[in-house]
Amino acid sequence: MTRHCHRCGTAWPLSAQPGRGESCENCRADLRACLNCRHHDRHAAHGCRERRAEPVEDKDRGNFCEWFEFATRTWAGIGAKDPREDSARAALKALLGD
Q: So what's the pLDDT on residue 82?
């Protein structure tokens, strides 16, 4: 599990949080963005599980959110399949008898 760019997967080597102007050395994507935050959840209200955070329109752009915490996760790549999706589909097929 690493902290990495949401767009290309380049690892963030520093232990400190990225600043508002920090960008990925590989693809130049903003690092202090909602898509890199551990509170980001596209299914939550305003896309954030932190209820005290101000709503942010552009989730992939740098912002001044004071609740930002760089997410630690495994890079799956763009378009990678989620294993939870496969198990959910199998359970649904079993339930429906397909």
A: 67
